[in-house]
Amino acid sequence: MSTVGKTITCKAAVAWEAGKPLSIEDIEVAPPKANEVRIQIYYTGVCHTDAYTLSGKDPEGAFPIVLGHEGAGIVESVGEGVTNVKPGDHVVALYTPECKECKFCKSGKTNLCGKIRATQGKGLMPDGTSRFKCKGKDLLHFMGTSTFSQYTVVADISVVAIEHDAPMDRTCLLGCGITTGYGAATITANVQEGDNVAVFGAGCVGLSVVQGAAARKAGKIIVVDVNPSKKAWGEKFGATHFVNPTELGDQSIQDKLIEMTDGGCDYTFDCTGNVGVMRAALEACHKGWGESIVIGVAAAGQEISTRRKFTPNSILGFEDTNFRQHSNLLPAECGEDVHSVVSRAALS
């Protein structure tokens, strides 16, 4: 029986309030309106940002809401005016849209898109309403994607088609984790052959930084993590060295990295969201030209301070590393390096 044009009842993990466990509920998902796409989600990743919002520490967090922003699935139906995808397409939902028309998209300087940013930030679709209901109440959307649901509705500029043979249990991570880390290395930092880099935190994002640095033929790629099991993972993804800060005795991780790289790293990447780690990453940079890229999201109000005499050239912070997911993930434009990332993205 066709579901096109009809409200679908499905399961979703609903966050009713901050600090409370997710609740599996039957929710109603309305049909897509003009320039919207309804997707049957097959796989979703779980990002620290989801946990951060659920914790209540996110000052912009609002409830009740359907979280999740790393999802892959199949288009169930499309609204009027949608031309970039069609029913049956395999797709990845994108929390960073790309309209290709706004000031941001045309600038060539950022991956941010301004077309639906205001409503997306409020947890609503572009027309200012929700497509989710549960127990008679509207549920908010999350980052324009809400992938913790069997079905979701997104704007047409927030979805990209992928090859049908691409494994969705891996491509879902292209929605955030992989593109964030890979883009941090290859676009934001623009790592060059021979550069020495240190990656703090070897989760999905950190390992994707490692992949990006390895693809650029970096010199030393040093993974820093307190979990010893991450050594093998780092090496699998291209790391040349592994350092566990808890095993250094009286030596700081900053001094250890400076020692290993003859004066400091060309690039350091924080993938933890811990301001103490951010400071260590900053102070491990080479004086004069080193750059520290902050990827992790710290709790609101926390600050980074440093007392080191010689500071790096710059600290770079960003949203999703300027990786234009819509353009860069199109099958016809997706380079072999990104295909390689997808093929190696099984993190479990």
Automatic annotation (TrEMBL):
Record-given protein name: S-(Hydroxymethyl)glutathione dehydrogenase
Coiled coil (residue ranges): none
Family that this chain belongs to: Belongs to the zinc-containing alcohol dehydrogenase family.
Matches recorded under InterPro entries: ADH-like_C, ADH-like_N, ADH_Zn_CS, GroES-like_sf, NAD(P)-bd_dom_sf
Domain Alcohol dehydrogenase-like C-terminal stretches: 205-308
Keywords noted in UniProt: Metal-binding, NAD, Oxidoreductase, Zinc
Biological classification of the source: Eukaryota, Fungi, Dikarya, Ascomycota, Pezizomycotina
GO MF, one annotated term: zinc ion binding
GO CC terms: cytosol
Domain spans labelled Alcohol dehydrogenase-like N-terminal: 34-160
Organism for this UniProt entry: Fusarium oxysporum f. sp. raphani 54005
A biological-process GO annotation: formaldehyde catabolic process
Swiss-Prot/TrEMBL cofactor(s): Zn(2+)
SUPFAM superfamilies: GroES-like (SSF50129), NAD(P)-binding Rossmann-fold domains (SSF51735)
